[in-house]
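Sanity check. The docking grid for zinc ion depends on where the pocket ends up, so I'm generating a full predicted complex first rather than guessing from homology. Inputs follow.
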Amino acid sequence: MYGGRSLYIRTLVLMLLSIARSEHAVPMEKVKKTNRYGLPHIVRQVNLKAVIRQMRQMEVFSKIDLARELGISTTTMTKLYAQLETDHVIEKSPERDTSFGRPKILYRLAPTLQVGAIVIDVETTTLCFSDLQGELLIRNQISFPTGDHLQNLFARIEKEFTRLREKLEAPCRLLGVCIPGLIEKDSGKSMLNPNLHWLEETCPAKELGERLNCPSILMHEEKALNRAQPKATDDLSDYITIDFSAGVGMSVVANGKYLSGTSGFAGEIGHIVMNPDGKLCGCGNRGCLETLASDLVFHTETGSPMDEALLQLEKGEQRTTEAALKVIEEQAKGIAAVINIFNPKKLFVYSRLAEAYPKYIETLRSKAGKRSLTLSFDRCTIETTRKGKLQGALLLTIDQLIEQATF
Ligand SMILES: [Zn+2]
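Predicted complex below; grid placement will be based on this.
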């Protein structure tokens, strides 16, 4: 008797978990019998997420078409629409579908449903808002120097955020705060920040959220860059992004899962020691990959500001080209190691050298090919990143808003 009851509870728990994790809509009619376990509420949340995911792929949609697309009844869909309309998540579109018989009312995601993203980079901080389609509102994007003082930066962010929010005339539902360095995933604390030491021991999303009176989440810059790469049509379950900008960072998706490590510190390829007697790194060690392979190293070597150094590289100036090739050589060593370890299908690389050196990918590929295992290398495509951290930060913020399904 006990065994039977235990098995029943186990089955029920497994069913609840599978529904809660589901990305697909669940017909309410199939689960009515388990009402007393609160199942319909979970199903409603799952359905809400499925509906919004689907809406993001369609510009306008009718109740019937969306219900058919997701395989749920129009009665369930009518209830979900009512909730979404009350919460100002969707609104009636001025367009009408007149293709068959009586014109159908079409809906769209409310353009007033906004999320924000703040990307705090070593040199520049960028702030912008977007609707749930992930359309960046360029006219509402602003960049300013990050500086080297925490409270000054937060005061500037507060000023610009307030100004932009007033212009939008819409609340920001969730704000994604994107930073470099090692972030402890449970506490949301910046633990080590080799290039922005003054951010260490702070919880930037929590502090900014309170200051701006807006729910906020913290994210790692490499995770944001990684999120921005796949297209909707891509079937990518094993891909890696490597960022050679100011520091050197990596993010890995393996078997469809993002690797964060036990504490959230995974991917710090920039601090692999290449030469123990090399230059001092921001992490305290010497000769890390970051001290040899970043864009920062390139423009320091040339002795010119970055834009000027890139211009010289574009013109084929010999000393600048040599400096670029030296950096690419080190980047290739890092890439070869990554290909050997993870056997990815695709590797996205970000480096500003690609802007000015037309043979960048070709050279990188040739150098990395000589240092990696042929079997793994031949099955991996290397290309430059398609979109930047800002787009990725917005997408991660939208993902989280939909995941919470609390509009
Ligand atoms: Zn280091």
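Relevant for the grid: The chain has three domains: 2-109, 114-226+390-404, 233-386.
Also worth noting: The first helix runs from residue 2 to 21.
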